[in-house]
Amino acid sequence: MRYNYIAIEGNIGAGKTSLATRIADRYNGKLILEQFEDNPFLAKFYENQEKYAFPLELSFLADRYQQLKKELARQDLFSDFTISDYFLNKSLIFARKTLNEDEYQLFMTLFNIMNANLPRPDLLVHLYVKTSRLQENIRNRGRDYERQIQDEYLDRIQESYFNYLKQQPGLRILLLDTNAIDFVAYHSHLEMVLEAINQDYPKGITHLRLTG
Each residue of 86-112: pLDDT tens digit? Predict the structure, then answer.
C-alpha cells in the first residue's frame, strides 16, 4: 500500500469497518477500529436526539481522540502502514447536524484543540452509499439501537460530509461511489476497490464511481 496512513469514512452503514479490515488483512496494515457500541448515550440519542446530542457527540470526540492519539503514536514494527475506519473530523461533521449553534461553537473549540495534536491521513477514502442501501445494510447487521434511524437523519449526515469535504483542499480525498458494487459479497468487487485506493492521487477530491 502506497500510503502510510489511510482513513475510511462514510455514512452509517456504508461499510467502513468491513473495508478497513479487508485492507489491513491484505496489505499487512495496523488496523484502528472505532469503539462505539459501549457508548452509554448512543441508544438514548436515537430515542431522543435533541436531549442527548451534546453528551453523545462530546463523548465520541473524547473517545476518538484518546484512541487515535494512543494508536497513532505507537509504532508497530510488524505493520507496513496504518488504516482506520474513522477520521477524528467525523465528530465535527456529525455535530454540525445534531447540535444547536451555541453547542456547536463550544464543541468546535474543543475539537480544534484536540485535532491540532493529531496527524492527518495521507488518504481519506469516503464511501458514498445512497440512503436506501444504507438502511438495508443497517437492517442486515441487526443492531437494536439503530432500528430507529430515519432516512432524514442519514440524509443530513451525508449532506454534512459533502459540505465538509468540499472545504478541505489540503486533504487528499478519494470519494468512492460504491452503490453499484458489493465489496463484502464479491471478491472481484473488493479487488476493484483495493486497486482504486492503491493509486497516486492529488490533494483535493477525486471522485470515482465503481461498477461491477
Answer: 999 999 999 999 999 999 999 999 999
